[in-house]
Amino acid sequence: MSTLPEAVDLTPATLRLRWPDGASALPAARLRAACRCGDCRAGRSRSDGAAVQLTDALPVGRYALQLVFSDGHDRGIYPWAWLRELAT
After folding, report:
1. Would residue 36 count as lying in a domain?
2. 6 to 23, 30, 60, 61, 79: CA distances (angstroms)
3. Is 27 helix (H, G, I), strand (E, B) or coil?
4. Which residues constitute the domain of residue 36?
């Protein structure tokens, strides 16, 4: 089974991914709270999770997305496999 999605759809509230075996929808607040960048892990980056929105999703090679949020945060890299795991 491929770990790459067939389609990516971004709205301010949700990242929707269509996989070969189904689909998933991840809320912006959940994605922001799950960020694993160094600043977030160290507790230096805070967000009002309920108000945060997705503003962009940039490919990182063929293995991940870099998500950009309305609070200005853009340092998180979200590998495809991890996005699938978050959706379960």
Report:
1. yes
2. 10, 22, 16, 15, 15
3. strand
4. 7-86
Cα–Cα distances in angstroms (integers) from residue 85 to residues 7, 47, 78, 79, in the given order: 17, 22, 11, 10
Q: What is the CATH number of the domain that holds 46?
A: 3.30.2020.30
What's the whole-model pTM score? 0.88
In a domain, 28, yes or no: yes
> Residue 57: in which H helix or E strand, if any?
strand 54-60
Taking only the tens place, the pLDDT of each residue in 32-63 is 999 988 888 887 776 666 689 999 999 999 99
Interacting residues of 75 by C-beta distance below 8 A, sequence separation 6+: 35, 37, 38, 39, 40, 45
